[in-house]
Amino acid sequence: MVQVEHGPIFQVFLNDPDRRNPLSPGMVAGLLEALEEAENDPEVRVLVLSGRGSAFSAGADLAFLEKVTEMGAEENYRHSLSLMRLFHRLYTFPKPTVAAVNGPAVAGGAGLATACDLLVMDPEAKLGYTEVKIGFVAALVSVILVRAVGEKVAKDLLLTGRMVGAEEAKALGLANRIAKPGKALEEALSLAQELAQNAPTSLRLTKELLLALPGMGLEDGFRLAALANAWIRETGDLKEGIRAFFEKRPPKFSPKGQEPPS
What we know:
With 262 residues, the chain is α/β, with parallel strands linked by helices. It has helices spanning 25-40, 62-67, 73-91, 108-115, 139-149, 151-160, 166-172, 184-196, 200-212, 218-232, 236-246; strands spanning 2-5, 9-14, 46-51, 97-101, 105-106, 118-121, 126-128, 163-165, 177-178.
């Protein structure tokens, strides 16, 4: 269900193309395993997520949809928790993540793409949070979407359930780049290579700050930023970066970097 290609740019593919890569239980479990592997591998600098075939992900598994209303409360809750772990794990992943949206990204598939740090779309790709059209609610996805685009845009997308093309997605702040036709993965890999040149410690700490700051008041936010600013000055990555700057050479950062203070 999930295919992985190893290296500093860790590629993860939703690999059920005949069914348009639905978020089946097997797919969810495979993605969680891939994220664990990528985090624990010190050589991995950036994770790129894409879909095999013509779609990124069609969302819910049709076999699941056929029986969802007959499942008991406990089974439904277990399924919801597994999806919650996936979205939370991807959204809070300590290394940069890039989604290459090569085709339609629908419902949970759109949420999966939105949970990545950066999103590259094929010009013909579309995404949509379509749950309301069949009586579902995009509950888990909404937690991420409202942070990504704000309340008014999130209301538009979640209440209408409409599909959004690449140009509009970029205008709304959902997509960061639009690739040439058929080149979404290539563009995402190029972006990942750009990210991989930066200091791993700086990337990790920047992600932690961006996760924390929206929930903080102004004063607390500035205090946290000051602590981060002071802590980063003690790291080997900064020392190497400054040396390289004055020696007019590319820096040689440690792949793993350093852990920010808890």
